[in-house]
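Hey, quick one: can you model this chain's 3D structure?
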Amino acid sequence: MNSSEVRPAGPAESDPQAPGPAAGRGALLRLMPMLTLANAAMFMVYMGVGGVLLPLQVELIDPTDKVANFGLVAGVSAIFATLFNPLAGLLSDRSGRRNPWILGGGLAALGALALLGAARTVLLVTIGWCLVQAMMNIYQAALTAVVPDRVPAERRGLASAMVGIGTPIGSALGISTAALFVPTDMTLGYLVFGAVIAGTAALFTAAVRERKRPAGEPVPLRQQLAAFADTLKSADFRWVFIGRFLMMLGFFSVSLFQMYILQDHIALPEGLDATEAVAFIAPVDAGVTLLATVLGGLLSDRIGRRKPLVGISCALSGLAMLVPVVKPDWTGMLVFTVVAGLAFGCYMAVDTALVTLVLPSADDAARDMGVLNIANAGPQILAPFLASLLVGVIGYDGLYITAALITLVGAAAVVPVKSVR
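Sure thing. Here's the predicted structure for all 421 residues.
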C-alpha cells in the first residue's frame, strides 16, 4: 500500500506548511531546492571525508596495513549507521517532527568531525568515524522521510531527482574540497566539512518550516521496534530492500577503496598522483550522474514506470565495473566513471521514487525509510571486510568482478515487485 492511498484527507492538507503529500505549491517550491542542498551537504561529508580524508588519515597512521585497517574502520563504523538510521527514524515518527532531528544531527556531526580530525591512532579514528556515522544518520533518517511526508505521489519522481541531484554535486564538491587540505591541513578540512553540514541543517530547518503532526495513540517503544520486522513482511518492500542492498554492496565494495585503487592498481599518467586523480574524476562523475538523475526521474514520471529503469541501471552499473578489469589504466577509469555515473544517477532517482510507492505505512514513513536505509548502511558494514579480503586474496580485479556480479543480481530483484510498474 503506498502512502498516497492511506494518508487521510483533512483540513491540514490545505495548509502549505502542513506536512503531507498535499502540501501547497508554494511549500513544494521552497522544499525542492532545499532537498538538493541538504543532500549535497550530506554527500560532501560522506565522500569528502569517507572517500579522501579518512583513507589518507588511516594511511598516515600505518601505511603497511592501510587496506586492512581502513576496512576495519569503515566496517565497524557502518554498524553505527545501520543502528542509528532506523532508530532515529522511529524517534522522529514518535515526535511528529523532522526538523529538530535534522538540525540536531547536523550540529552534532560538527563536533564528531572535530574529534575525528584530531585522532592519531586507528582506534581513535574508528571511534571518531563511528560518532560521525551515528550523527549523520540521525540527520539522514529525518531528511529521507521528508519526501513521503510532504510530496504527492505524482511528483515524487521530480522530488527524487532533486534529492538525487545532491549526490553528484555533493560528491564532487566534497572530494574537490578535501583535496585542498591534503596532506598538511587535514584537521582543518574536517572542521570545514563539519561547518558545512551544521550550517546546511540550520538553513534547511529555517527555510522548510513544519508543523507537528497530530498526535496519535501512544505506542510503546518496544512495540515500535518490533514493527521493524513487520515492515519487511510487505513483499514489494522486501524485494526493493534486497535490490537496494545488493546495488549498494557492489557500489561500496569499489567506491570505499577508490583512493587505494588509484594508488596501487591503476596506471596513472606521469605526474598525476592518486589525490589529483580523485579530484579530476569527481566533477566528471558529478556531471554524468547529474544528467542521468534528472533524466531518469523525469522519464520515470513521464512514462509512469519505475521497474525497467531500476533494473537497467543496476545491470549497466555491473557491466561498468568490468571496464577497469579489461583496461586498468587512466582511460579505463574515465570510461568506468562515465558509465557508472550514468547508471548510478538514474538508479538513485528512480529507485527512490519506487521506494516511496511501496512503503507499507504512510504514518510510519520515517520508520519504514529507516528500515530501507539499512540497505544503504548495511552494505557499508560488509563491503569493507569483503573488499579487503578480496584484495588480499585475488587482488583488485577480483574485487571488481565480484562487485559486478553482486550488482547484476540486484538488477533482478525488482522483477517480482507487483504493485508498481
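One thing worth noting: The chain is about 80% helix and 0% strand.
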